[in-house]
Protein 1
Amino acid sequence: MAQQTSRNQQEEIFPGKPVKSLGEKNPNIERSHTRGTVFKWIAIGAAGIAVVVLAVLLIDIFSDGTVRLSKDFLTEYPSRHPEEAGIKSAIYGSIWVMVFTVLFSLPLGVATAFYLEEFAPKNKITETININIANLAAVPSIVYGILGLALFVRFFALGRSVLAGALTMGLLILPIIIIASREAIRGVPSSIREASMGLGATKWQTVRHHILPQAFPGILTGTILALSRAVGETAPLIMIGALTFVPFVPGNIETFSDIIADPLALITFAPMDGFTVLPIQIFNWVSRPQAAFHVAAAGAIVVLLIILLSMNALAIFLRYRFEKKGSQTR
Amino acid sequence: MKRIALIAVAALFVVSCGKKQERSIGGTIAIDGSSTVYPITEAMAEEYMKQNRRVRVTVGTSGSGGGFQKFATGETDISDASRPIKETEIEKARQNGIEFIELPVAFDGLSVVVNPENDWVESLTVEDLGKMWKPEAQGKITKWSQVRSKWPDRELNLYGPGVSSGTFDYFTEAVVGREGASRGDYTASEDDNVLVQGVSGDVNALGFFGFAYYYENSDRLKVVPIDDGNPDNGVGPIAPTFETIGNGTYQPLSRPLFIYISLESAKRQEVQDFVHFFLNNAPELVKEVGYIPLGETTYQHAIDRFDERVTGSVFSGGSQVGVDINELLQTR
């Protein structure tokens, strides 16, 4: 009796007849297909929401802001008259801060990444450094502002200068640069390392002539993306006392002829000068009661967006160029 | 060659860290502080520098508290403030050997607003506002009908600035009687434009913020006249206007805005010049940016106070409601 039942069950599970032919509908496969389609549309929807939100934001900003885009808007200083106010000091300030941020954080970040990937012994200290860097990348930006205020502005007595701002920003993006650089270095096949060492190259020669050139596109992309984050930051710079109304550009250096007239000012006077940046100017205009200032803010946002998009485009372009170059020498 | 260039840049970078503004042209006046006072200072700096191109005036917006922090360590020459300096801040300045001159520069009238479709509120007394905003009202006073029984049985939705703002400090002092004492269950925003949005889109709303934000949005907000129950400064409910705030009848929600000048900085020619320019041009420029000028004689008193270098604060810590600025300015 029991045997009988079990045979019946077996026949249900493995029916004697061959599996239904392809033309016939199998409910199981049918269901899987439906699920697949549903998931696909959910995924499209999810991606679509992000794109639609971005598009709405961009359209809104551009429709408000483009009326203000003119040569004057870029070359005038801030003013209490919203129609006459410009973002000259903010653009110059943003550029100055970015340049010094790169000068500070790129060498430091890349060197750290190389140390951790290529030279560091695998021990507790290295492990601690690793965990710390990962944690630092997640610290809120305002905390870097507090650090920058205590360390650079007060302790090193740099004041509320371009240099203090750039060093604070440099600290902020340092973990991101280190992590991106390490990824890029890790991406270099170990066969290259081994081949180089096998031919008698020293560690330094291997790093200098093989790993760095291979990892460079990745490092560069990571750095530019980190910089894009820094260029949009407000909180840490307000914390260290970056200004809002700045009727001059750092070092009074406005044109190339100013640089030629006094090139030393580029590195002596300008880095110690007061500054403001685009996000601070935008923040200030957005919070003003007069609607005309909101339009000016929209204009400044458009400029900031253009700068950000150009930086990202540059990252893609450089990556493409270096990768091509890298594959030729290989 | 590349390497040499790199080393050169690195070396110059290190050198630049050590040098301070030696090449500075003319003087620099560093101002920081309240973002409420910022538009006034911005206007002053802009106009002043049109006439004095060699002087650089920079203005920051760290807030009244953040401004005083920098002021007390001697990092700034002038501090903007939407409230009087606090005892703790005076103490900190004293420790660093910083003395200061306190000058009122303008009035702001905190405006209480409702939605234009709100047809039941004609005016409010200070007690009404207290009933709505006091800490004990939290979770209890949630309907308009609980404030006055003849008002409709509708939700009461409150909008106001965040607790860190000077506007909040002053409002609570004036309405509840204690600085910073307020219910917590209201919609708070540091950006007054958000409050304007909120009230203009909510029939049951009531909010408060600086006069300029009402003035710029008067087409989509209804301002509520306030009755302080004191016939000495105008009988009955009074709405905030340039006139009522300026002549002191819009009470108790008119508040003075200040600048604080470091005594040490006041020794410098450019700072003296700028402060005089500030006070002489205040009647015109203050109004232009949406605030209410003090009377002409009041500015003269302020100039005298500055010229005589009268230091210290006439406010014994914290905001005071309904003060007579002229009287205070003559306090020595």
Note: Confidence is low (pLDDT under 50) at residues 12-25 of chain B.
Protein 2
Amino acid sequence: MAKLSLRNISKRFGDTRVIHDFSADVDNGEFLVLLGASGSGKSTLLRIIAGLTDASAGDVIFDNLRVNRQSPRERDVAFVFQSYALYPHLTVRENIAFPLALDRFKAWHHIPGISTFARRIFGSSKDVVKQVADVSSMLELDEYANRKPGGLSGGQRQRVALARALIRNPSMFLLDEPLSNLDAKLRAELRGEIVRLHRLTGKTFIYVTHDQVEAMTMATQIVILHNGIVQQHATPQEIYERPANTYVARFIGSPPMNLMNATVTEGLPTVGGLRLPAPEGVRIGNGAVTLGLRPEHLSLSGDTSEDGLPATVRRIEDLGADTLIGVQPGQDLGLKLWELNQDELIWIRQAGQTRLMVGDPCTVKLQDRLASYFDSETGLNLAPAKEISAAGMLSSLG
Amino acid sequence: MTTQEAPPIARTAPHKRRLKAPGNRNFSKPVRFIMLAALVLFSGFPLYWMLNTALSQDSELYGQAQGWWPHWERLADFGDVIGSVPIFKWLTNSMVIAGGTTLLSLIFAVLAGYALSRFKFHGKGAAGFLLFATQMLPEALLVVPIYALFASLGLLNGMGGLILANVAFTMPVSVWIIKGAIDAIPYEIEEAAAVDGCPRVTILSLVLTPLILPSIAAAAVINFFDGWNEFLLAKTFIAERDLWPASVGLASFVGQYLTSLNSVMAAALLFTLPALIFFLLVQRRIVSGLTAGSVKG
């Protein structure tokens, strides 16, 4: 059982700073997802926690014990790699038994030549065989036990990698994009499997991914990283509902949050000529702000006489259960869509199908109560942040 | 109304169907057989001619034309021909020298190949380059300084010294073969082993070595044959007849005025056999594709 604390972790590769002063506490039993685009430093951070990479500065603390100089083995962590990293010359059974056999090694068993025999002998001892059988059956690997990794599919290989991690009963599981080489169906299946293992073991899981669906469905806490700087550390729900800044707002959600410019006069925001009531719980000063609304917080009407933003339908994407509609706001509104709004359109998610056709005029209605307001200069959310959890507190923000 | 015929149903699984390699498309089986037979004949003929010569009489070899068929009845005299010299002693010496060279060279090569492949250190490029320094100079040029060095170290007239000198010449090639093989192994496998509790030496012995066995086998063949065939250093360093390896012993059959060709060939045949057996043993290990499936794909 381990509580992980990271204190002011920084990492440089030459002149490039990959991680800037990262601090966080992760309580035992949490499922923390490190989420970010490629190059955001999330894998490096995971490797620092594992002891596979040294931090340039800062401390990694397991249960009040500084482990900076300890080897991965001494830290008692298990690591699941994106590329599975199975031992190709060993069978599935031997792969899973490998860490247990190594556990029983005395110093002299590491002498080359002797180590081969020692691994075989310890790997075939009664209790190891039993544990391997238990874990194999838990992950439905029994029938492949005598195959080598080369004869397995991607999903089966990743299961073997999970089994190899699981059998050691480590204090913490570190998973580096374990599902990104798999197809969508297998990914969903193994996602469920990993969540099940987390519940079953009750251990801390730290999971790196660039896939927000994985993050949102699995995590108890998410840390969003961008260029090595923490953008937000919160629960999935908090991140979705109250993104800390415009980067998080754009990163989470598909399609992402619609961001548009608004002007505040006497505490009342105006967007595209549409005056909104004063937002609750947010103190906004007069001047420019950025207004954010999730696609499901907007609705469309074919009746152009209704109150709202006049627009024209440009794209319709029917997803079956719901429909995504991309509309272009009227030119005369002077509404600037925030930088990268997908295709410069406002996206609306609507349950079921729509009767509107591409080119139809329409009115966009805003559920202003659910809007987020961001500082137009810094991009920070103007609403105060909630405490994320009793245990996990973000000590540093960038 | 016309009915459309269904496509024929394949009776074998796709992976069991025999696929024609693109290059074989134009050759039928008998033609391929004939071509292979010609190749075997071509490469096997020198060996056959050695045997034929070994079983011929001097008069045949120096006088009339040598017959195409060996005189099998002379096989009984074979023993007499080679009994006059300690050929088995020499072969044993050769085995010790070639085996020792191979073993020592491979141990160094695996360690050096691993270091060159995985570690970053100052002078890495220079170290890799200097390894080849011995290959750049002709062996004959280095014999004199090595002789002087060995003389001062008391390494002359012994197999240990000869093995050391041989290793200096054979190891560089092995290092580069093994470095190349280690380069091709994903680093994650090593990291996985480190997380599983392996120190570096165990990663090397338990995980990497089995994965690079084909390359080790290839390097072993090169080292063994280099050690087995080596002549110049052995001839220079070893004066005592009983310590000669077979290569030097074989050369002693060539006299200043008279060379008994059939004796030379009889001894040469014996000289070839252990090397051939070694190759056949190791050859099975030289297979590729052992790392398939370790990582994604």
Note: Residues 184-201 of chain A form the longest helix (18 residues).
